[in-house]
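Milestone M4 deliverable, item 7.
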Amino acid sequence: MSTTGSAAPAVSTVGLRKSYGDKTVLDGIDLHIPAGSVFALLGPNGAGKTTTVQILSTLIAADGGQAQVAGHDVAGSPDGVRAAIGVTGQFAALDDLLTAEENLLLMADLLRLGKHEGRRRAGELLERFGIADVARNRAATFSGGMRRRLDLAMTLVGDPKVIFLDEPTTGLDPRSRRTMWDTVRALVESGVTVFLTTQYLEEADQLADRIAVLDGGRIVAEGTADELKAQIPGSHVRLRFDTVDEFERAAAAFPGAARDDENLSLRVASDAGMEALRALFDQLDAAGVRAADFSVHTPDLDDVFLALTGDGTDATPLHVKETLR
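Output delivered:
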């Protein structure tokens, strides 16, 4: 992942709003995404992720607020934005009747790169994405993973500065998904900014420098993966004991712990840091008890997502959302 936190923003928005009739989809979105980084936008279905991408890529107009992409105002200079971006949607936008090479050359023609430059760029991308050996095969014969790679290669024909990936690994098997992750990492290494929307929380955890959670048309949390996880309550240490006597003495030493009498284990709330663990075991020693084994649990992005979005209803305690802002 990139570490360009102090770079000038590649994408920024202030108070971005969008409604369809009586339904407010975006209710004042503020974003600041440094160049050369991966930004992930998470949220349940209907949260407004795709709408955000569509506005930033000039496909639809916002109802209010301001947005800039690659130094261009989205409303005032849409042509400048389009010249600087690439967009890959949830489904590969390929012509199945054309070969992989022909798809890339078609994109080069649409971008008016010229015949020589178009062929050079197509050949380079075929090699880069590992599909040079099937360049003359029709796209209809490609697997899902190969189609996504070709689709992303087409996005890069114009050498964009910012790439919007709207759920790019939907429908891919785990191996193809990890191949796509490697491709995204390589893009960022070359200086490209990636704006990613995804429902795969592991994907955001693996790739993103910063993550925002969108729910009910608003950003309800933003930060690094570790920052978001650290704010969710639930870190604990599970202690297991060999005998009932040890278990009962430990339970007396930790009266607030959750008991599992069947498995002779306790769940003790803890921030799981080294100092907290040392204090916990000191407390066990003082009680004259030794645990047979222990395990540490810290919240993951699944916990963050569920705490913030629930099942589409806003049942999240207000103090959790406010803490994460």
